[in-house]
Write a structure and sequence with these properties.
With about 280 residues, the protein is mainly alpha-helical. The protein has 12 helices and no strands. The radius of gyration is 18 Å and the shape is globular.
């Protein structure tokens, strides 16, 4: 299984991209459904714990550049202001800050983009009352997307820019959300395509070479893209460019990026004189 087209074809008779991924994982590993499911369920629990850990207001990275911002977003009246989006952004920022402060996270698909998928799914669970089993199945859908992108392009910021990290995470989260809210496998693919299309060209430019600024804030931006993309797909909008075509376009854009914009700390935000106003 290499392309999103192949994943969607496998998922159609099953009704779920996640179910196709579960069965593929069982076939690849030779493990039982219970074993495969339990391992993904454990990832969900790590995600949930990392959201909680990142909301500690006393949290601070060694550099001092990040930590404590997510707790401010969750202060009374703050996250509620923008509903599901506000909570998703706060949770995404929380996990990313936890990572920057050496907390335990799930790389989804990378440490630098670790907040987007849990931010999307855990906030959706609170808003929509979805079960943990539904979230686990959504994580399998996200895994199928990540697999297709990793094989056809890259999920490395050093190789393809932040579009390959936060962009891929947004695509994974968008597809997972589309499935969670009852969308078809085709809708999940369209959601992924919208998210990738809208993050195309995003550079990797960490300040001081650390996965902190602008990385943690891009997690909040990435989850917003995921919600937007999922909403478009669930409304029946079809991305005018196929998902696999967008993945290959992302690879081409990454290959064309100058080295200064691919995790070297020499261009973009990394070249700015300082932080703040």
């Amino acid at each position: 299984m290499r392309t999103m087209a192949e994943w969607v074809a496998a998922a159609q008779p099953l009704g779920s991209l996640g179910e196709a991924a579960v069965r593929w994982q069982m076939a690849q590993s030779g493990e039982s459904r219970e074993t495969v499911w339990a391992r993904m369920r454990s990832r969900l629990e790590v995600m949930r714990a990392s959201v909680s850990a990142g909301l500690d207001p006393s949290l601070k990275s060694v550099s001092g550049m990040v930590g404590g911002q997510a707790s401010r977003m969750m202060a009374p009246g703050q996250a509620e202001r923008f509903g599901l989006l506000g909570r998703a952004c706060a949770y995404a920022l929380s996990v990313a800050e936890s990572n920057a402060c050496m907390g335990k996270i799930v790389a989804a698909p990378t440490a630098g983009s670790c907040g987007i998928l849990p931010g999307a799914l855990l906030s959706a669970q609170e808003a929509g009352g979805f079960s943990d089993d539904a979230l686990v199945m959504a994580l399998f859908a996200a895994a199928a997307v990540g697999h297709a992108i990793a094989l056809q392009a890259t999920v490395s910021g050093a190789e393809g820019g932040c579009q390959a990290e936060c962009g891929t995470a947004a695509g994974m989260a968008a597809a997972a959300l589309a499935q969670l809210y009852g969308g078809t496998p085709e809708m999940s693919a369209h959601a992924c395509a919208f998210a990738l299309m809208n993050t195309l060209g995003l550079v990797c430019d960490p300040v001081r070479g650390l996965v902190e600024v602008p990385c943690v804030y891009r997690n909040a931006g990435g989850v917003a893209q995921a919600l937007c993309a999922a909403q478009m797909a669930l409304c029946g909008l079809a991305c005018p460019i196929g998902c696999d075509q967008i993945i290959l376009a992302m690879k081409d854009v990454g290959d064309a990026m100058p080295p200064s914009l691919r995790e070297t700390g020499e261009g973009g935000c990394a070249a700015c004189a300082g932080c703040g106003v």
